[in-house]
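[Q] Does anyone have a clean structure-token version of this?
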Amino acid sequence: MTEVTGVTAAAPVTAVDSSATIRLLAESADRIDAPDVVLAMSRGGVRTVHTGGSAEAGPVAREQLHYELGSASKPFAGLLLARLVAQGRVRYEDRAADLLAPGFPVHPAVRRITLRHLLTHTSGLPGLPADFYPQAVPRWSTDPYGNYPADRVVRAFLRARPRHRPGTRWHYSNFAVSVLGHTLAAATGTPWEVLLHQQVLAPLGLEATLLRPGPDSTDATGHRRDGTPLPALDTGGFTAAGALRSSPLDLLTFLEAHAGGASGSPTDPTLAAALTEVTRPVLRRGWRHAHTHTLTWFQHPTPYGPVLFHAGATLGQQAFLGFRPGTGLAVVATATRRVHRADTFVATAYGLLTETP
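[A] Here you go.
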């Protein structure tokens, strides 16, 4: 790798990125207040990575640490579903309850919830199960999810009473995407972690993307707003919605596969089809239907073409993933401080994606 004034041009590269990009990332990082900050950009396969933050750098380079992705894990779940559909193993219109618990008596609205509904936040399910909060509130700032295991998520789904008829309203739901993960595991007879590795992580060469803490000193440490360190997040039964940890370099590889980067098109036709499918707009929502979504990404227009992105936050870390389809531009940002009201992290990363020519 080539070191350039604190910026890493990481393989695969043919030349170091422009000095303008180096300056842009450095100036952007200065706007983010966190112990550890990584901003990474890939343009046509040429990667530029800036690392910094208020804390002392550790023994492992910041761009090689595993960062908690939180809800930025969801695009991985979406790509997995799209590939299983391309393989003919499931269909988007398959009913989740039929795959998860065949013959089990459920509310008629639950019976109508499909895999597509779960992934696109149109299932009618709440953000989290109603009985999640009593056990979570006493540990809200330390471990809200750990005591809510997978079987409890499944039971909560099977006894749910959706607020709206499936397919009629958009409501962001960690609950729904978690149910999707358990449903795909049941439908394929394969544990979620194994399924994701087989279908997404291994084919894309994402060796630094994990569903649990890595070896000692390889994980970034999250922090509260006051700078107090936090232990690694345990997502309990909500694995598909937010359990992934990954390095910024792996995340660039993931985005390059979507954006048309240096890695080129995957040779497996089902993976190539899935990567195309998850970039296709499927619904609109909000005032005058101004907000566009694909199966798993938020989509916004820009003067340079549409951008697709997803952000995530855990108790002490944040992540942002975004790309421009077909252009080779991808942006990754990570930070190790809990989100707060005056936080500039998402706005800064979003600006890199939408304002870079």
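[Q] Thanks! Anything notable?
[A] The first helix runs from residue 19 to 29.
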